[in-house]
Amino acid sequence: MKLLFLGLLICSMAELSNPIIYTDSAVVANHISGKWKCRHHSLLPLLMTVEDIRDEFNFKVVQVDRSFVWEPDALCNEFLDKLEERKSKSTKPMI
Which of 36, 38, 62, 74 sits in a 20 to 30 Å window from 82, CA-based? Predict the structure, then answer.
């Protein structure tokens, strides 16, 4: 849910209209579509925020098979690994 929120923020800032967000998460897709009621208290604030965003910004969330998102997932993990490597080599103090 956090990544959906971040993706919507990026789309909004880039002025992308009507984005389609693909996810392999049944939880995310079904919570956003309203098919499932959210019972996890820690997800409720994020879900409510995404619902507020939907009032102002048109988007669609589509659940897809895991095999459909393997490449973006791998690229994201590669980026995060490189980021962690850079952080560990950094001599600047973390704030």
Answer: 62
- Would you say the C-alpha torsion 56, 16, 2, 92 has a positive or negative sign? negative
Instruction: Point out which residues pair with 61 in neighbouring strands.
Output: 21
> What whole-number distance in Å separates Cα of residue 22 and Cα of residue 25?
9
Let me know: does 21 contact 61? Beta carbons within 8 Å.
yes
In degrees and rounded to multiples of 5, residue 8 shows phi and psi of: -65, -40
Per-residue pLDDT band for 7 (boundaries 50, 70, 90) equals confident
Tokens of 57: 């910004």
What is the distance of C-alpha 26 from the center of its chain? 13
Cα separation, 24 vs 35, whole angstroms: 16
pTM: 0.66
Reported as a single tens digit per residue, the pLDDT across 13-56 is: 888 889 998 999 999 999 999 899 998 898 899 899 888 888 88
Q: If DSSP codes are grouped into helix, strand and coil, which group holds residue 14? A: coil
